[in-house]
Every structure is written in structure tokens, then in C-alpha cells.
């Protein structure tokens, strides 16, 4: 009597998945399917609670949340963790806020997987700049105002040594991730590099969530605005004429959100 051959264990695999800017309804269909079928989800702190709630209870979760100057797990250890678990035969979802390749260190994790011979796929997500600005009614490009957009990280080393003169101003929009702690220095640096102190600025706090706020002011007031309004992370800073467009007044979906807008007359 012949016996059927024993089934081989399925090969492990790693997916780098973008969770979007916070609202679970902005998660892609593919990302949702992967969360439902994963053996392990390794997630960042910026992944929204609504997205995490979609993970079935039997799926193992590991949080590797990062905060300014304090990391639950260093990046090299995260790389080692996801590679090791995939090599053990698990279907591993590395779940990252926004898009994995926009300030998400997804490129480093992909390289680590490739070097270890681990199969890896990238599942794009809506990056915070696009998702949060759109929901707030702030068009990052506009035929009358901006034909170019730049994304920068506000926590870069040697911030004062960089030339930001070409990032904001006429015809351009600048979106700054992770810039709350350095908001005053960013404003000072932009002004020193020739950007008008009167350029409109918007701060989008907790975009796409029920706690979203949009605060608007001028570049020269950016640091003071962040301090007096006690803006909390995650938040984006949008610098450019698009920040002054009236659309932003009407797109947050409720009187409480509309009342939180601090609108200052802009002279540009």
C-alpha cells in the first residue's frame, strides 16, 4: 500500500504592508486580506487602532513602536526579527503607518530580507501626506498655486546644514513629516534660506481620525502655534499657498472640527 507523501511545510514569507494614515477604511483590500491570513503581524506605533482591530485574535502581534529618542526595538533588531520569523516558515506582515517606503524604513527591511534570501513583497499604502491633506481639503498641488511637492523629515540630523531654499515658495508645496519637535527651527531655517515669513502654513494633527485638527497660520508663527495649541504627534506640517485655500474650512465633517481651525489672514 502506497502512502501519500508528507506535505512539506509552507515556505515563510515577508510582506511590507502600508497601513495608511490612520482611518481603517483607507486600508487597501490587499492589506486587509494579508492581515486576515498572517501568522504574525509586526506593527509600528503609528498604525491606527482601527486597523489593528482588523487583525484576527489568533494572529500573533508584536509592537515595535518608536517614539522620539525612545525605541521599543532598534531597527537592526526589527530586521533580524522579521527575517528570523519568516525563515521559520511564518507568513509575516510588517505593518507600517502610511506607506512602507515613505519615511518608514521599508527599504532597509527589504534589503535585510533580500540579503537573507527571504521572499518579500511590498504592499503600498496611502502615505500620510496625501491622505491627511486630502481629507483636510488641502490640495498639495493646484494649478493656481503649486506644481511641485516635496516631502522631508523634520528630524533629520544636521537640519541647519541643509539648504531648504528650493523646497518651499512660489509654485511649490513642502510637507514635513515628524516636524513638531523642531517646528521653530524649521521655520527659522526656511526663512533664513529665503522663504517668505508670510507664507501660509497648515498643521494637520491626527489626520483621517476622529480627533483630526487642522491649524493654520503663517510660517513665522509656526513654532508658537505648535506650542500654544499643544499639537500632538502624529502631525504633518504643510507649507505653501495651498495651505490658505478656503477648501480646508469645509472638509473636516463637523462643527467641532471646523471650530478648531485657526485661520489667520495671509498676506503673500
From TrEMBL:
Domain Tetrapyrrole methylase: 13-222
EC number: 2.1.1.107
Enzyme class: transferase
Gene Ontology MF annotations: uroporphyrin-III C-methyltransferase activity
Pathway this chain belongs to: Porphyrin-containing compound metabolism; siroheme biosynthesis; precorrin-2 from uroporphyrinogen III: step 1/1; Cofactor biosynthesis; adenosylcobalamin biosynthesis; precorrin-2 from uroporphyrinogen III: step 1/1
Keyword S-adenosyl-L-methionine part of the UniProt annotation: yes
InterPro entries in the record: 4pyrrol_Mease (IPR000878), 4pyrrol_Methylase_sf (IPR035996), 4pyrrole_Mease_sub1 (IPR014777), 4pyrrole_Mease_sub2 (IPR014776), CobA/CysG_C (IPR006366), Siro_Cobalamin_biosynth (IPR050161), Uropor_MeTrfase_CS (IPR003043)
Gene3D superfamilies in the record: Cobalt-precorrin-4 Transmethylase, Domain 1 (3.40.1010.10), Methyltransferase, Cobalt-precorrin-4 Transmethylase, Domain 2 (3.30.950.10)
GO biological-process terms attached to the record: cobalamin biosynthetic process; methylation; siroheme biosynthetic process
The family this protein is said to belong to: Belongs to the precorrin methyltransferase family.
Protein's name according to its UniProt entry: uroporphyrinogen-III C-methyltransferase
Species lineage: Bacteria, Pseudomonadati, Pseudomonadota, Alphaproteobacteria, Sphingomonadales
Amino acid at each position: 500500500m502506497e502512502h501519500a507523501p508528507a506535505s512539506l511545510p509552507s515556505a515563510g514569507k515577508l510582506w511590507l504592508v502600508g497601513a495608511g494614515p490612520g482611518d481603517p477604511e483607507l486600508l487597501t483590500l490587499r492589506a486587509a486580506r494579508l492581515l486576515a491570513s498572517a501568522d504574525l503581524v509586526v506593527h509600528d506605533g503609528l498604525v491606527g487602532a482601527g486597523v489593528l482591530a482588523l487583525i484576527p485574535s489568533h494572529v500573533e502581534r508584536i509592537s515595535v513602536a518608536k517614539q522620539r529618542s525612545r525605541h521599543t526595538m532598534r531597527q537592526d533588531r526589527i530586521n533580524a526579527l522579521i527575517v528570523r520569523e519568516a525563515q521559520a516558515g511564518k507568513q509575516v506582515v510588517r505593518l507600517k503607518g502610511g506607506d512602507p517606503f515613505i519615511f518608514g524604513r521599508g527599504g532597509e527591511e527589504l534589503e535585510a530580507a533580500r540579503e537573507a534570501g527571504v521572499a518579500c513583497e511590498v504592499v503600498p499604502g496611502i502615505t500620510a501626506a496625501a491622505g491627511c491633506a486630502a481629507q483636510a481639503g488641502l490640495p498639495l498641488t493646484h494649478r493656481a498655486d503649486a506644481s511641485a511637492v516635496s516631502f522631508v523629515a523634520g528630524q533629520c540630523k544636521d537640519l541647519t546644514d541643509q539648504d531648504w531654499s528650493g523646497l518651499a515658495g512660489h509654485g511649490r508645496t513642502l510637507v514635513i513629516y515628524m516636524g513638531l519637535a523642531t517646528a521653530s527651527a524649521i521655520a527659522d531655517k526656511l526663512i533664513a534660506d529665503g522663504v517668505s515669513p508670510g507664507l501660509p502654513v497648515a498643521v494637520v494633527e491626527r489626520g483621517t481620525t476622529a480627533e483630526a485638527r487642522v491649524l493654520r497660520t503663517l510660517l513665522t508663527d509656526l513654532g508658537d502655534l505648535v506650542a500654544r495649541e499643544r499639537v500632538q504627534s502624529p502631525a504633518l506640517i504643510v507649507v505653501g499657498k495651498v495651505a490658505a485655500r478656503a477648501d480646508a474650512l469645509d472638509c473636516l465633517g463637523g462643527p467641532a472640527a471646523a471650530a478648531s481651525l485657526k485661520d489667520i489672514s495671509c498676506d503673500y
